[in-house]
Fold this protein.
Amino acid sequence: MPTPVWLITGASNGLGLVLTLRVLRAGHHVIASVRSKTKSADAVQKIEKAGGSVIEMDMTESQESIANKVKPIARIDYLVNNAGYSILAACEVITEKEAILQLTTNFFGPLYTMQAALPVMRSQGFGTIVNVSSVAAQDPLPACSLYSASKAALEAASESLAKEVARHGIRVLIVEPGNFRTNFVSALADASPDPESIPPHYDDPVGQIVRKFLTVHGKQIGNPEEGVERIFEAVTGEGGKAGHLAGNVSRLVLGSDAWRRMKRKSEKDINELRMQEESASSTDFVE
Ligand SMILES: NC(=O)c1ccc[n+]([C@@H]2O[C@H](COP(=O)([O-])OP(=O)(O)OC[C@H]3O[C@@H](n4cnc5c(N)ncnc54)[C@H](OP(=O)(O)O)[C@@H]3O)[C@@H](O)[C@H]2O)c1
């Protein structure tokens, strides 16, 4: 059997780097993308030493530029759209530049990457696209409007795409992490306005959520090694605690915090739906 090939974005840090090294340990091939080989020299060295290849790709590049980088890859078994970050701020004060950067990085870049990988997967007759989203898409907290919107866009596109490509043997899996101990909060602090600048009328609840995120850094409940293990199992179907989920779930939930939030949100949604059956049906033509 040919060696499976993975394309993993955002491999310079966090979940992307841990997943890249895990996949390489399994003897699979990885093409790992980082924004800058120079800036991420340590990660690049680790990946290349473990047998992986590294390319430079920024999620803010144009559709054409991303296509030019992905199209030369002759075989892609697994595409993992992992690169991403969050801005935390009150919705009212987010600038146009910040809003566009958030949506471009977390939605348009992954979209263009999928579009470039799909012809390869279609011609192979198989492939799995893994889109790393966030519980924030399903249960958006205050201060997370743009981050949640970017991940919700990715999730909606993923669900539609899954229905378009199933007949070509291509699967799409959405990953829903809770809080994981990566560089995420540190990157978030860099990308977000200074908490001191939060207008007083938004201190409750925006300021409270921002301060909570910043103080959790290094103490998050999620273990990245375990998180990527579940991703590996759920996409390859190879045993472990999530192997049985392969092909059976559209969303892979990672972390007890994410699972609890999604359950609470789903129950709220179903209760609201039940309350509205009569009112919703009342808008139909009576013929
Ligand atoms: N950790 C969590 O609590 C958590 C929770 C829910 C969802 N997630 C999602 O999980 C994914 C991985 O995050 P992480 O926790 O591993 O955070 P991380 O340690 O900060 O890693 C994020 C990765 O994304 C890359 N990246 C950021 N902006 C990019 C851009 N414009 N172009 C290309 N790469 C870019 C970073 O590259 P640089 O090193 O160059 O910055 C880094 O490799 C993200 O999509 C995140 O939204 C994380």
In short: Residues 5-257+264-270 form a domain with the Rossmann fold fold (CATH 3.40.50.720). The chain has one domain: 5-257+264-270. Residues 107 and 154 are 6 Å apart (CA to CA). The two ends are 59 Å apart (CA to CA).
